[in-house]
Amino acid sequence: MTMQATQDDILEAVSALPQDWHGVGTMLRSVLAAIARHTGGRLVRSAETGTGKTTLLLSHLSERHTVFAVDYGRSLSVTRQSPLLRRERVEFVEGPTQRTLFQYRFTEPLDFVLIDGPHAYPFPQMEYWAFYPHIREGGLLAIDDIHIPTIRHLFDFLCEEPMFELVEVVEATGFFRRTSAPLFDPYSDNWHRQPFNAARFPASTAAPASRTGHDEAAEYRERLLPLIARWRAAGTRVAIFGTGEHTTRLFDMVPELETLSIAGFLDSDPGRRGTTWRRWPVYTPDWAEGHCDVVLCSSFHHELAQMALLDHVNVKVVPSHIRKAA
User: Which letter, b or e, does each residue of 285-315 get, where b requires 16 or more Cβ atoms within 10 Å of its Cβ?
Assistant: First the structure.
């Protein structure tokens, strides 16, 4: 069997693992394929924060792979137990990356780095700081979950950073390649030499506007946060109706939706069936019956229309907001 055939077989085997293989979400096949494609399947040294399907794939692509992770949602346990893992190639550094990554000493340049550990600010930024001096020229840096606002900010910064050039965005993962630009001293200041800062200086020093009158974000959060807490506690399978700008806006305002057990997204356009959106598969509304426990309608102005499309489907349907009477 050829090397390429072996790589293809591994990609298919890893991609075939179920979406709920562990409890904190798994990479889509399109992202795994992008990792294999951009690395060329030939890595000497790689590292990632977080663990799961990417670890299984990288254990075949890389001669030496280091994983910084905690066993959240049994992601570390199931990865270690998988027969698809080449254990002799992987070093697991268990514990919060906020601690372990800064205690670790890299002795070789890194060919590939994936940042997909804790997502709250400033943890991805901290991981970037720990990794970027060790990425070799021509090496790859992947930032996952760039739909989360503070991670998107890191992505936007890197798009203007001379040390990196954007290669591709696949789903919610950005791929960058290390250029030949000199290393920005990780122990310096020189903020004014960073293009992102230079292009925006000076920033406004005005305090944020007072939150008076109608606060749309607060309105959605007030309704959804209690629901999210209950659905998480009950293990409720949630399908979200909508795959457009309105749903992106809803996730921006209520990023806690990412913590749900999302079964998939619904779209009334049959042409969207079989595609993916925000990592999850897209189905037509009829699919919801028997495959999820509740459908959350996400459209800001067309929720009633979405709910009407589910009239004949035996599933609980809830709107994402209820505007209070004046």
Answer: bebbeeebbbbbbbbeeebeebbebbeebeb
Domain locations along the chain: 3-198, 216-319
Any alpha helices (H) in the chain, and if so which ranges?
Answer: 3-15, 29-39, 53-61, 75-81, 97-103, 123-131, 149-159, 195-198, 216-234, 245-253, 303-309
The CATH code of domain 216-319 reads 3.40.50.720
Other beta carbons less than 10 A from residue 207's beta carbon: 6
To which residue do tokens 């800064």 refer? 102
* Helix, strand or coil, per DSSP, at residue 65: strand
Tokens of 15: 């991609």
Largest Cα–Cα distance in the chain? 70
Give Cα separations from 257 to 19, 146, 178, 263 (angstroms): 17, 15, 33, 12
Q: Does domain 3-198 have CATH number 3.90.950.20?
A: no
Residue 295 β-bridge partners: 239, 317
Mean pLDDT by 10 residues, the chain (326 residues): 64 84 73 94 94 96 97 89 96 97 97 96 98 98 93 95 96 96 97 93 73 67 92 95 84 91 89 84 93 88 77 90 59
For the residues of 118-177, what is the DSSP string, one character each?
Answer: --STTHHHHHHHHHGGGEEEEEEEEEE-TTSHHHHHHHHHHHT-TTEEEEEEETTEEEEE
Q: Is residue 110 a contact partner of residue 136, using CB atoms and an 8 Å limit?
A: yes
On whether the CB atoms of residues 13 and 84 are closer than 8 A, the answer is yes
CA dist., res. 111 & res. 323, Å (int): 51
DSSP 255: G
- For 83, the token pair is 């027969």
Q: What is the pTM of this model?
A: 0.66
